[in-house]
Design brief:
Dihydrodipicolinate Reductase, domain 2, 10 helices, alpha/beta, six-stranded parallel β-sheet, Rossmann fold, 2 domains
């Protein structure tokens, strides 16, 4: 048996609980420590997110810390898993890489492109691995559709339509768009990243949205425009009663639909095949598994590369400018 990596997790809110639960059963990495400044979060084994309850984590099996400084002083580990609020991602990712750790950080990568670029520069300067946990890329139902579209099994993609709606997150920092970026940068970014990973960066975007609670764009519909590409429409909201996520990819000779954990494959001859991925490993499990394997192998996480995630952030910020100006907007580098 080869070496097993040791991971420490910082930020034990909803996503921290979710990540911690998905270290259970990992072959190449084990979670050894959890860090959060609020000791009350350690009293609950599960947390509520806008898509439901996280998996259960018994924290009695881990060393618990109140600060990053205490964590690095007392704990031996290889990977820092960052599940802090978005404005803290860049600060702690850069600090950890400079301290000699490889870093997996929750999305969004950072709150600005300038911060994104500092993170990328730090990874190159230190030689440490860095990956943003863009989980939808790793979800088996989305991965199936992405591969099918790249291989053009049903011919050319004509239209991509995605929807991801939920209620307002309960944590207070989400309600300040200067921190969270609103639904656009938090929730909507999932489908931006999935579409961009397949299609690349559009030339221009048109985003129509409303501000309700965060001061950011909390309910929106975005359209992407390519020189010679498919129609792309993506809807997202923090103003709904419950979580709902679907996708439709309409191609020349058939259509793929994602509904929950199922993929419905409609061919033009009227036949429908249903694939159910409910028993597959979750996207959260797979992203941790993938990053740990990259660290052990000494390879770059090309499936979710820094440059690709940066392109998704470019599109997100262009959509935000479009929504605020009510104009079609060019995607800037």
């Amino acid at each position: 048996m080869g070496r097993k990596l040791r991971a420490a997790l910082i930020g034990f809110g909803g996503m921290g609980h979710c990540h911690a639960a998905n270290y259970q059963g990992q072959k190449d990495v084990k979670l050894v420590a959890i860090c959060d400044k609020n000791p009350q979060v350690f009293e609950k084994g599960v947390a509520e997110l806008n898509f439901g309850r996280t998996g259960f984590t018994d924290v009695s099996g881990y060393n618990l810390y109140r600060s990053y400084r205490e964590l690095v002083a007392k704990e031996k580990f290889d990977i820092l898993d960052i599940c802090l609020p978005c404005p803290l991602h860049a600060r702690y990712a850069i600090r950890a890489m400079e301290d000699g750790y490889d870093v997996l950080t929750e999305k969004p990568m950072a709150r600005s492109l300038a911060q994104v670029d500092r993170m990328i520069a730090a990874s190159k300067a230190t030689g440490r691995k860095l990956m943003t946990a863009q989980v939808v890329r790793f979800m088996p139902q989305y991965r199936y559709v992405a591969d099918a579209l790249r291989e053009e099994k049903f011919g050319k993609l004509l239209r991509l339509s995605a929807r991801r709606n939920a209620g307002m997150p309960s944590r207070e920092w989400y309600r300040d768009c200067r921190q969270s970026g609103g639904a656009l940068l938090d929730l909507h970014l999932h489908d931006i990243d999935f579409a961009q990973s397949i299609l690349g960066v559009p030339e221009t975007v048109l985003c129509q949205g409303i501000t309700r609670e965060s001061g950011g764009i909390d309910d929106l519909m975005a359209s992407w425009f390519f020189g010679n590409g498919p129609i792309v429409n993506i809807e997202s909201s923090w103003c709904r009663g419950g979580f709902d996520a679907t996708l439709a990819a309409i191609c020349e000779n058939g259509t793929y639909e994602i509904i929950g954990q199922k993929v419905l494959i409609h061919s033009r001859d009227g036949k429908t095949e249903t694939l159910d991925f409910a028993k597959e490993k979750s996207g959260y499990f797979r992203e941790i598994e993938y990053f740990a394997r990259c660290v052990l192998d000494g390879t770059e996480p090309e499936f979710c590369s820094l440059e690709s995630v940066r392109r998704s952030m470019q599109v997100a910020f262009a959509e935000d400018r479009s929504a605020r100006s009510c104009k079609k907007t060019r995607v800037r580098a």
